[in-house]
Specification:
Blueprint (H helix, E strand, L loop, with lengths): L15 H9 L7 E2 L2 E2 L18 E6 L7 E2 L10 E4 L11 E6 L8 E4 L10 E9 L11 E4 L6 E5 L5 E5 L7 E4 L9 E9 L4 E6 L2 E7 L13 E3 L8 E12 L5 H12 L3 H13 L4 E3 L3 E3 L7 E4 L5 E3 L5 E4 L9 E11 L2 E11 L8 E10 L10 E6 L2 E7 L16 E9 L4 E8 L8 E2 L2 E2 L1 H7 L3 E7 L9 E4 L16 E8 L9 E9 L12 E8 L8 E7 L5 E9 L2 E8 L5 E7 L12 E7 L11 E8 L6 E7 L4 E7 L7 E2 L11 E10 H10 L1 E4 L3 E8 L4 H7 L3 E6 L5 E9 L9 E9 L8 E3 L13 E3 L5 E9 L5 E10 L2 E10 L5 E7 L2 E8 L4 E7 L8 E9 L2 E9 L6
Parallel strand pairs: 18-24, 48-54
Antiparallel strand pairs: 1-2, 3-17, 4-5, 5-7, 6-17, 7-16, 8-13, 8-17, 9-10, 9-16, 10-11, 11-12, 13-14, 14-15, 19-22, 20-23, 21-22, 23-24, 25-26, 25-46, 26-27, 28-29, 29-32, 30-31, 32-33, 34-35, 35-36, 36-37, 38-39, 39-40, 40-41, 42-43, 43-44, 44-45, 47-49, 49-50, 50-51, 51-54, 52-53, 55-56, ...
Protein name: LamG-like jellyroll fold domain-containing protein
Keywords: Disulfide bond, Glycosidase, Hydrolase, Signal
Pfam families: Big_4, Laminin_G_3
């Protein structure tokens, strides 16, 4: 057959690949104003956006229009990538479409990369430009993978839940994750970059050129010794194939700097700038009207892409573009309507919109306002099984702010040293809040031995104790204590139980025979009929009763839910005489299900229940009813509106369900303004008053305004009470979330002050804040192992201030007089000394005729000293009085007249 040479393209019609190269070098930027885009020429200049080329091993630009081969643009020996199960219809001219589907599907498209793409590399950078389908947000997937078809050794990225990059040499159990704190949006282009710096020992993840996570690791791509099946869109697990689009993919055998990563993101953003403009507009268009219900609050930012501005003098937006300070109408006045301007920026392209705002009037201290939530955090890379506290953003139960800088507020040094599944409840008779929680440490805890380890060991032989803290104000918490749900008050075994987990409690007025109330406590345990805990069994929900979660008042009740299969994680809510309980079934495919009863003794196993709904929240786990657990239920203030948070396992955390009719069941709440920190898991929520809410917010301090509070002066001999009274009682603290400052009490450590000795003594005080609670522990030799000896709690986040206690020598106010008289025919000198000072003094009287010493003359007292003359007649003279106290001395004289005695 005869072939004909192809004519070269005209200068104004570059080939697709040349077109892409030109695009990658562009400095792109556009700014939106209300009404449209500014011309590109008017956009300000930005930094260099050329793609780094040093140590570039592979570069694949998916701008073909047909075929199954993608050339490697990098100057290396690595060859082309191959599109598997591809077709010409999957090419868009700027990307390749990945169709998704089962791993075994003969039509699911993916890309095979050359082998050994990072063989021997101690550092690496992998960047990809991708747009994900919504199904990938809740489905296991590998966006790309360096390794083989075995998951044992692998370096990869995933966009499920919150996106992450991972390296492991021991499968899922050995994963080192750098995970973003926010989920990605579907149908929007992102630049995702993974960097492993072998010298620094870190794996870091970037989204759109911004660092979102970084974790220490000793692993590197060189440890991925089998790199025979490197892929885009295909996992070594039997996970579904990736669904979405890919535009570029690059591999470096060095760690790019943060600036270089940003350059790659900016350059690749130019490929789909029109889509970014539409995405930015969609973000602002989706913003709901804003309600401002407190003087300082954080506005929604849609994952950080939105900033706000104001022209209303009654609304001031801080420099962060998110914190607004409002002048609220007076209590009882009408709400005020106004607007704020929201600007969304997606990959350097911006859109704006005026958003309606309602400013609510100020409220009274006793008004219902806000919510508090305790929870724990699931973190396989760290020992995070502690107590965390979040508070709602104003009165909005769909937006939550982590307190104490996102760090724990309480920790356990008892039992297993782990805290999971905490619940927050309240005794209205004693006005006391309680946190109760599972005594279990999964990460770094006792895993058992032999053939029964991990969950087998924990469920059968784990702790039957519960962790308990109490508080009057939700700010300052008591020391930790434990009680055992398997024991009687006298310590006798009440039941043969495996681990007690997921405890909750509901207050029952009039529970006791004397008319007082008590908590009905319920939790999950496996039950055994022998002390060896052997034989087939399942988890039941059990119950007991107590007034204060101590062993002395606790009484074991027995079974509450027994389905014949594993039932766990029950929570209860009541409304208009009906009790609703929500339970997780792990045996019969029901997932989270809800039942109802009108029985007053709802905790008893004989109570009849009606099923309301099953498979609740499965939608958040891609339809997998077993993928959600740990339900938490609460009611919106003063409304027929309830929320049910379900924990999407293993790491996503809470996602919301809602209803306005409990008898109708729950529906998924999808909201762009729902805001909660990642991995917020299995907790409890209580309603607050405005006074409680403000008290919590004012105790959530980020720093002290002034660390040195000056001098406090006390007299020598002062007692501890006097020293404390002289020191400042409060310190000004700078509040988190830009909420200004507040005064908080200080507790001073006076151990180093010796008031018996004048001098200057430095002292340290702890400021009352949420962070001042005991949230860490350490054992002997600094160990944090679960079985470390001498485990002691401390606070790692307490704010401290300093001062100097100045102890002064007492002021000496001594007076002296002298007179002569005859005694038994002999002249004597009588010196009278009075102590008008504030401390005892030692007194010495000297004269020409002799000396007398008074060891101690109390403050406010006087005394006399007599000295016999040596001559008769005795001439006039003087006495010298020396008074001494605390190292200080004063000297004075007194004269006496001549005398002759006969």
């Amino acid at each position: 057959m005869t072939t004909h040479p192809t004519a070269p393209p005209a200068p104004d019609a570059p080939t697709p690949r040349r077109r892409r190269r030109a695009l990658l070098g562009l400095v792109t930027g556009a700014a939106l104003f209300t009404g449209g885009l500014l011309p590109l020429a008017t956009a300000p200049a930005v930094a260099d956006t050329t793609i780094p080329s040093t140590n570039l091993r592979a570069e694949y630009v998916f701008d073909e229009t047909a075929g199954s081969s993608v050339p490697n643009s990098a100057p290396t020996a690595l060859g082309a990538a191959t599109v598997v199960n591809g077709s010409d219809a999957l090419w868009t001219g700027s990307s390749l479409v990945f169709t998704g589907g089962e791993k075994t599907s003969p039509t699911a498209s993916w890309v095979r990369l050359p082998g050994d793409v990072l063989a021997g590399a101690r550092s690496a950078t992998v960047t990809i430009e991708t747009k994900l389908d919504a199904s990938m947000k809740n489905t296991w997937n590998f966006l790309w993978n360096i390794g083989s078809d075995s998951p044992t050794r692998s370096y990869f990225a995933s966009v499920r839940d919150n996106p992450r990059t991972v390296i492991t040499t021991n499968g899922g159990g050995g994963e080192v994750n750098a995970r973003s704190g926010s989920a990605l949006s579907a149908d929007r282009w992102y630049s995702l970059t993974s960097v492993i710096d072998g010298a620094a020992g870190r794996i870091t993840f970037f989204v759109d050129g911004e660092q979102v996570a970084s974790t220490p690791t000793a692993l590197s791509p060189a440890d991925i010794t089998d790199q025979t099946l490197n892929t885009i869109g295909r996992a070594p697990y039997p996970d579904p194939m990736y669904k979405g689009e890919i535009s570029t993919f690059r591999v470096y055998d060095r760690a790019l700097t943060a600036d270089e990563v940003a350059r790659v993101s900016t350059a690749d953003a130019s490929i789909h700038s029109d889509e970014h403009r539409r995405a930015a507009q969609a973000v602002v268009d989706a913003l709901a009207p804003v309600t401002v219900d407190e003087s300082v609050t954080t506005l929604p930012t849609s994952g950080g892409s939105v900033s706000w501005s104001s022209t209303d003098p009654g609304l001031t937006v801080a420099a962060d573009g998110a914190t607004v300070t409002a002048q609220q109408p007076a209590p009882g006045a009408a709400a005020r309507t106004t607007s704020l301007t929201a600007t969304a920026t997606v990959r350097g392209v911006a859109a704006t919109r005026s958003v309606p705002v309602t400013v609510e009037p100020a409220r009274s201290a006793g008004d219902a306002f806000g919510y508090a939530m305790v929870h724990f955090v699931e973190d396989a890379n760290g020992y995070a099984e502690k107590i965390y506290l979040d508070v709602s953003r104003g009165d909005d139960p769909e937006a939550w702010d982590p307190l104490n800088g996102g760090k724990p507020i309480l920790a356990s040094q008892l039992g297993t040293t782990g805290v999971r599944d905490p619940y927050l409840t309240y005794n209205p008779e004693t006005k006391t809040y309680y946190i109760i929680a599972t005594d279990l440490r999964v990460f770094g805890g006792d895993r058992g031995t032999g053939s029964c380890t991990d969950w087998c060991y924990w469920e059968s032989r784990g702790s039957t104790k519960l962790n308990v803290w109490e508080s009057k104000d939700l700010v300052t918490w008591s020391d930790l204590r434990q009680f055992d749900v398997a024991l009687s008050p006298a310590g006798a075994k009440a039941a043969e139980l495996g681990m007690a987990w997921a405890p909750e409690a509901t207050w029952v007025p009039g529970y006791n025979a004397d008319g007082s109330g008590a908590f009905v406590l319920y939790w999950s345990s496996t039950m055994y009929d022998n002390a060896a805990h052997t034989g087939s069994t399942s988890s039941r929900v059990l119950w007991g009763a107590t007034t204060d979660f101590t062993q002395q008042t606790y009484r074991y009740g027995g079974k509450m839910i027994d389905t014949g299969g594993n039932a766990i994680d029950t929570t209860v809510i009541q409304n208009d005489g009906t009790t609703y309980r929500v339970t997780k079934d792990n045996a019969f495919g029901r997932g989270i299900y809800m039942e109802s009863t009108t029985a007053t003794d709802w905790w008893k196993p004989t109570t009849a229940w009606t099923t309301v709904q099953e498979r609740i929240g499965a939608v958040w786990a891609g339809g997998n009813a077993g993928g959600v657990e740990g339900p938490a239920v609460f009611q919106r203030h003063g409304e027929d509106h309830w929320y049910l948070y379900v924990d999407v396992i293993p790491s996503t955390g809470y996602r919301p369900m809602q209803t306005e009719n409990l008898d109708a069941g729950w529906t998924q709440l999808v909201s762009d303004t729902f805001s909660m920190a990642p991995s917020t898991k299995h907790g409890g929520i209580v309603p607050l008053t405005l006074a409680q809410y403000d008290g919590i917010r004012q105790a959530d301090a980020a720093a002290v305004v002034t660390g040195d509070l000056g001098d406090a002066t006390v007299a020598q001999g002062a007692n501890a009470q006097a020293v404390s009274a002289a020191l400042p009682r409060e310190a000004q603290v700078r509040l988190a979330y830009g909420r200004g400052t507040a005064a908080q009490p200080v507790t001073w450590n006076l151990a180093g002050v010796d008031t018996a000795r004048p001098g200057t003594y430095p002292v340290t005080g702890t400021v009352r804040t949420i962070g001042a609670n005991l949230n860490q522990w350490v054992g002997a030799n600094g160990s944090t192992a679960y079985n470390a000896a001498d485990r002691r709690l401390f606070s790692s986040t307490a704010l401290t201030v300093s001062a100097d206690v100045v102890v002064t020598a007492p002021a000496l106010a001594v007076t002296a007089t002298a007179e002569t008289r005859c005694v038994a025919g002999k002249p004597v000198v009588v010196a009278r000394v009075a102590n008008g000072g504030t401390a005892p003094v030692a007194v010495k009287v000297d004269s020409a005729h002799g000396s007398k010493t008074i060891a101690s003359l109390a403050a406010g007292k006087s005394t006399s000293a007599t000295v016999t003359a040596r001559k008769n007649p005795m001439p006039a003279g003087e006495v010298t009085v020396t008074a001494t106290a605390g190292g200080a001395a004063t000297k004075l004289t007194a004269t006496y007249a001549a005398i002759t005695c006969r």
